[in-house]
Amino acid sequence: MEEKVFIAPRLSGPRFEDHSLPVNILEDFTALEDLLVEIAKVIYLNENGNRKRVPKGFSDGIYLKLVDIEEGSSVAKFAIASAISLSSSLPLDNANNFTYFEKAKDKIVSIIESVNNGDIPREPDLKLLSYFNKIGKNLQDNESIDFGYNYITKVSSKAILNKATRKKILLSSEQKQEYTDNIKLFALVPEINQAINTFQLETEAGNIKCPLTDQIKSTVFTAFNEYKSRTYISLKGTALFNWNDKIVEILEVESIDVLDPLDVFLRINNLIKLENNWYEGQGKALNKEKLINFGDFFNSYFDNKLALPAIFPTIEGNIQLEWKKENKNVIVGIELETLSSNFFYYNDNEDSDEMESQMILNNKEGWAILNRLIAKYL
Prior knowledge:
Structural class: alpha+beta
Order of helices and strands: EHEEHEEHEEEHEEHHEEEEEH
Number of helices: 7
Number of strands: 15
Oligomer: single chain
Strand content: 25-35%
Shape: elongated
Distance between the termini: 62 Å
């Protein structure tokens, strides 16, 4: 028997174009489940003024379950179920309490819509907004979730949650001036305080305090000991931001890695910051999305047994990869728009020892050719 769909949010963004869900996005829907229960309780008490508490077992065993993922980009169809109803002959939607969860769903949609319309959440809603610390937390800059999407008519709603909307909701929560969000950053480690188990991250925006746990101590001390050598770390975690989007402190570290000096994503992070006229009054700024796209291809298909290249910007707004081994040199010029590339090898000591080739680096086959050429000539 086909499950009755309770809510079918539409997820938009590059990660959802293959009609699948990244595992970390499921954390957002776990938080949605919690919020549904809390709002359903509030609605019940508002509609039953003679009750001070919800009935025993009101939300026992209630959960959302993913029953299908439909195309466009990814439409996640959730049914609402109860562990208790599994042993009962009555379906959940015949239970008296189900109507309160329907109303709770509509309330969540209306809150998001109102914020997108520029309205300020009403006083009774403020204590519910803190749940958005987790809902939408795992969205990236170019992603969104439409919680009011009608999967039958394929019509979008105004209840679209993205990072900007989530920030507005969280800053509205009890008039807070701070909010939390996932972060990934590159930094140096100039200081460790073992007395209070913290360390400092040195970033372009200033120093940031970070918790020092046993799991990451070894990595942090390596970066600290190599601070004068400008050894960077890559850190993923959760940070507290102020209303102006500045990181106040790191609350939790998910992962931390010491980076190779030629780390490609560290270099891309630096190249993104170049503005027009970056070189003696000339030089075109590099396209952020195209750079990240190149980085994703590099991460997926470059042979990690090969040496990493130095990466330089070109005046035209493209990039050039360079390898050098003794007297041997490889230069690969890459046009970011199409990822077409020109491979050039030459030997400092032998004028006749050189070679040129072209390839497109927007597929696995093109990268396989590049990997073979680098391995052959270096």
